[in-house]
Each structure stands twice: as C-alpha cells, then as structure tokens.
Amino acid sequence: MLSLITPVSAEDLKEMFADDFSESxxxxxDSRNKRVVGRxxxxxxxxxxxxxxxxxxxxxxxxxxLRDEILSGRLELKDxxxxxxxxxxxxxxxxxxxxxxxxxxxDDAAKSEIFEQMCCGCVSFSDVKALDAKAALRxxxxxxxxxMLKYLVPKSVEFPRRKKPVRIRYEISPPRAVVSxxxxxxxxxxxxxxxxxxxxxxxxxxxxxPGGRAVQTTQNLEEFWKTSWxxxxxxxxxxxxxxxxxxxxx
Length: 250
Description:
The protein is an alpha+beta fold and 250 residues long. The protein has helices spanning 10-16, 59-72, 82-97, 108-118, 125-129, 133-138, 143-152, 221-226, 229-239, and strands spanning 21-30, 35-44, 47-54, 156-157, 166-167, 169-171, 176-182, 204-208, 214-218. The termini are far apart.
C-alpha cells in the first residue's frame, strides 16, 4: 500500500481544491526583536501550508499590541516616573472631589485608551520609548481642564521659612490633602492661603520633628498653636534644644 502513496504539492492541491485554500495576514509581536510584524498564512482547510513575513501591518492592531505591552509592564516607559504617577493622582483626586469640573479619572480603562492613541504609528519598542508619555497623559485633559487642575489640586505649597516648596500628598479614600513639613516651617505660615478644590477640602498638616517623625496632625493650625503646641513644644525642646531659637513665635 505504501508504494501507492504519491507526494502532492501545494500547487496540485490548490488546483484540485481551490475553494479549500485561504490566505490571511495577521499582525503579531516578534518578542525576540521587540517589534510588531506582519505574517501571511496560507491554509488548506486546517493545515498550515506556508507562513511568511510581510510588510503589511495593521496600524490599529500594532497600536493595541504595543499598548498591551505597556500595560503588562513588559514595555517600560522611561518617563512614567514618580512625577507622572503624581499627575495621575492629582487628576483622580480632582475627578473624585470636583466632578463638576468635568475632569475624568485616569483609571485602567483611561490608561488603555491613552497608551493606544500614543502608540499609533509605532511598530517597535524603541519607537514607543522615544515618545513623550507625560505629554500623552496631559492630553487626557483639555487646556482648560489643565488650568483648572492647577487651581483645584495644586502640586505644592510654599513656606516663608523654607527655600523649597513642599509637595502636597493627595489621598482618595477618604479624600485628604496632606502637607508634611518640619515644625519650624509652619512658623509664620498662613494656612488660609492654601485652598484645595476651591475650599471643599481642608488641608491636613503633618507637623514633623527634626528627625522627620510626625508629632502632630491638624486641620487647624491656628487652634494648634493655641492648644496642642504647648505640649508638643515641651517634648521637642527636650529632645532637640538646638532647633529652638530666641524670638521664635509661639
């Protein structure tokens, strides 16, 4: 029976069963070379006849593939750093506390949309890494919303006795705007000048010892100086006498 077996070429099959052949082009990730490629597959029914590279790549599919690599963490963006994460936190805080602003949160669905749009026109990891991810995040907001974000959710606060501004920490649940600074920084500081979400959120002040330990938390500095400061000052002066100077207020 084996002697009756005769080799059949793909051309012969195509001539006899033309309707059973199909050709498709797929866009896929070449993990080794870290780039999106196009592949053309020729099938005879369920049998793969041939597979070859092609220059035909679906831009939409390429963008989705690269987006998924970003979201999975396999494609790292150099400028998705602490500042980028802080921007996301501020946007999400504004969206939660001030929905009337029209600012939408940057959640998982939003990140998927942002990164897919950002990857349009890219075919490789190197293409994506050359992009400005922070600009893509900012573009989630209109120009008017970006201005509104600066007003509603400021990045930092300045102190009269401190050279550098202090970054404000935003927490969503429950919503808090936290300012952590050394106790001397709060001398001569006017808390009324700091408005969060147009006054909806009272700032929480973490008063730190010279060692960086939080010794008191308050949302009313004026009341703190009148009451709790007496005990806090006594404790701090015993441990850090050099940090108290003649003429200090309070």
